[in-house]
């Protein structure tokens, strides 16, 4: 009974995290791909996904390669940390924020922009830039809600166009990579009597 209550609490927490941290900040996605953990496979999570019209897809069991983008991102972060962390590897947690900032603001060829721009729709500005431009922005906005609202709608449309463009760039990059890979494959011609290795002999 206690175990079941604990899992229910976990499911409730996860649903709240999705609603507050992800959906409220970035909007509801079209689909979510997750593993087959009990956090994602329960009635409460399914109800939340159904309510907001999100398609929930499950990855193959014991197959982490399903989340390919996550694997690529983790590999990139690992390389950054390997270069920045010294001989004392316990300092990696202190360097993680800097590594994440470097990763998010670096230009990615497959999507044709930075991950930061893909999420927020604008270039990453340093605090010193914001400090000097804060008064100008406040004066420019002038607390006119209609103007600010219209400007925000334009920004949202631009962000959608940017994401569509990033998706197309990603597909083009994948096609080019596949062509390069396929060009290196050599076609083998086997004759009767040749010794070959069978996959399942």
Automatic annotation (TrEMBL):
Record's protein name: Reverse transcriptase domain-containing protein
Residue span, Integrase catalytic domain: 1-123
Domain of life where this protein originates: Eukaryota
Keyword annotations of the record: Nucleotidyltransferase, RNA-directed DNA polymerase, Transferase
InterPro entries, alphabetized: Gypsy_RT_Integrase-like (IPR052160), Integrase_cat-core (IPR001584), RNaseH-like_sf (IPR012337), RNaseH_sf (IPR036397)
Organism annotation: Tanacetum coccineum
Matches recorded under Pfam families: rve
A molecular-function term among this protein's GO annotations: RNA-directed DNA polymerase activity
